Amino acid sequence: QILSSQEGAVLTLTLNRPQALNAFTSGMLSELRQALDAAAADASVRCVLITGAGRAFCAGQDLSDPMVKPAEAGDAEQTPKDIGLLLDGFYIPLAQRLRSMPVPVVAAVNGVAAGAGANFALGCDLVLAGQSASFIQAFAKIGLVPDCGGTWLLPRLVGRARALQLALLGEKLPAEAAQAMGLIYQCLPDEELASAAQALAQRLSQMPVRALAETRRAIDAAGLLDFDQALQQEARLQSRQGFSADYKEGVQAFMQKRAPKFTDR
Ligand code: LHQ
């Protein structure tokens, strides 16, 4: 249910259940996490690109999965406990894995991204989307709350007012509007999406990826720090990066007026 292919140092993972708009099953969620674990451990991977097969990116949780069957009168009090198990066992580790990847992660949103599918895409570092793609915080429509990090991500991406607009109304937000709102990096003509995403991922893979991953971590962590603490965090990280092979190479390449060849990961 997850296709994997590598071009140079860019690993592409394709969500591949097109008949169900790539809706997440537990099997697919664990395959996806395993693929990200493997990418994180593989020194030949310097950027991950995630996209969907067919006309959708991902329709979120597969609502026909028995694990998410709504409780009925007479069910034991703790049902539907399976939703909790699904979050604890699958969605939370996946969102954490994505957020802590040692390399940059690009999403190429090729069609609708709904519910957990939208928030999984928005959890990637740079989000590109085709003009016909859209983002739907579908949770409210079925009596749920945003998950897969949505409550944390949305207000940080677009501010509280827009986060509430998206999460409470659950309306379909076209990719162009998502870009205008600052929810995603870039909306592109559909026919350019795949090649633009590949080019962006290739470009990132040639950058000092450890510094990029540390940058993501520092920006995320700084949300909880005051200004002085953020300065201290920067100084700590900068001192460490100052000892890196990539810093040495970057400065040497600049002085020698040549292209750098970064290797840290
Ligand atoms: C689907 C789905 C789907 C199964 C389309 N499941 N089959 C929730 C619960 C528990 C724990 C953890 O977390 C979560 C988080 C969540 O993600 S909640 C949100 C779940 N997702 C949704 O509520 C979205 C439901 N889907 C839709 O609203 C529409 O399908 C969208 C807007 C995504 C696309 O609309 P259309 O382009 O009009 O396509 P369609 O509705 O005709 O769907 C095509 C097929 O895909 C269809 O099957 P069929 O056999 O009739 O061709 C759908 O049933 C199936 N499908 N989403 N989530």
UniProtKB/TrEMBL annotation:
PROSITE patterns xrefs: ENOYL_COA_HYDRATASE
Keywords: Isomerase
Domain of life of the organism encoding this protein: Bacteria
Top-level class of the enzyme under EC nomenclature: isomerase
A GO molecular function held by the record: isomerase activity
EC number(s) stated in the UniProt entry for this protein: 5.3.3.18
InterPro entries: ClpP/crotonase-like_dom_sf, Enoyl-CoA_hyd/isom_CS, Enoyl-CoA_hydra/iso, Enoyl-CoA_hydra_C
Family classification: Belongs to the enoyl-CoA hydratase/isomerase family.
Name of the protein in its database record: 2-(1,2-epoxy-1,2-dihydrophenyl)acetyl-CoA isomerase
Organism of this sequence: Roseateles oligotrophus
